[in-house]
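step 3/5: co-fold with phosphoric acid mono(formamide)ester
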Amino acid sequence: MRHFLDINQTPAADLRAMLDEARRIKTARAGQPRGARDAELALDGHVVALVFEKPSTRTRVSFDVGARQMGAETLVLTGSEMQLGHGESIADTARVLSRFVDLIMIRTFSEATLRELAENASVPVINGLTDRSHPCQIMADIQTFEEHRGPITGKKVVWSGDGNNVCASFIHAAGKLGFDMVFTGPEAFDPDAAFIAEARGHGARVEIERDPIAAVAGADLVVTDTWLSMHDDASAREARHALLAPYQVNEALMQAAGPDALFMHCLPAHRGEEVTDSVMDGPQSVVFDEAENRLHAQKAIMRWCLGR
Ligand code: CP
Ligand code: NVA
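step 4/5: write tokens
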């Protein structure tokens, strides 16, 4: 059974094969209407369940459209509207869904929920974001980087702000694909030390630099994300913003990074908070390519899960 739970748990050769496939898939359907079926209907006759316990725009639409373009039927399910939200266990939900569908994508809160679903499902499970990681996003981000700049191996990625779930998957990818990663942000929001140690164990250079201007020197890519994630306590918003404000990605920071650095954000962005309009809409920004590549990267992930 091939679950896609995290980048650090997926063999590097498989990640590379999925990235190459995503590029091929994107090229193959260039210029076609959105509803056109892919030439190779890899998921024909399959049913894909998309379970959401948190809001989503990109993950929901890209998985739904992507699965349909590959010939599958899709079910978009909201946790609160399922018995899952009313006391049924995740293990029993996994056993039941496995009798009806061929693949399950879930966006949930705890890592434990994702694991329990995967352990009890008899079909592949894909992580569509937990409090701890967001692997599908980073597959799309790497696809996007490589489209613009070639192989990411050996490049320097700088994460500015909150060392959150999206940052964690970037660190996982640094270890697997061999690029350097610098985290710049307040100590209170440092990424998980175990993830940093693991990436370093694979030979990646992962550093923490508190000075954002020093951090971005020579960066090939600058990345940020919201200062308040869906799982964060909203009452801490102001305190978090006060600590994170020096790490806003603005024109001064992008200037320090240099003209060749790309800017990425998984979106949704909070313009004027973690990133300014001038950077989001500026020449270094590839945020909407990133959003589009969710579609192509996740097709490769779904195909991999189903052994295609
Ligand atoms: N980037 C991302 O996962 O977006 P959604 O929350 O809209 O799915
Ligand atoms: N870090 C954000 C990512 C949203 C796609 C969150 O978890 O809310």
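step 5/5: annotate
The mean pLDDT is 98.
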